[in-house]
Amino acid sequence: MTDDIQYETAHRTDGEERRAFRTLERGPGDGPIHPVVVEVVGSLLDVSPGDLDPMFDSLDTEALDALCRADPDARLRVGFVYHGCSVAIRCEGATVHVSASAPSRGSGPDPRQTT
Length: 115
Fold this sequence. Notes:
Elements: E1 6-12, E2 15-25, H1 34-45, H2 61-69, E3 75-82, E4 85-92, E5 95-103
Antiparallel strand pairs: 1-2, 2-5, 3-4, 4-5
Organism: Halalkalicoccus tibetensis
Protein name: HalOD1 output domain-containing protein
Region (Disordered): 1-33
């Protein structure tokens, strides 16, 4: 599944930022979205998703999944921080965009370090 994740680097005035993202087409019977977030963040940080703290320790994953399933015609944006990465989820009908960004190594704190 990680083959579907794409990467880019943005140059900002305060350093570089790495971003990983994945776009999915979802149907009514599809599973929860939070495992996709964990996969994208793990890929960005170059760690196995299983090595990350469980997302439900910092976010109500059931509520997140319900928001992404609520209305197939809705447009929705949700943002939060997970493992030091800025996560954005954008739902546009059946299309869901999941992205995570973090400072490039050497241009700020290492997002893999938890506090």
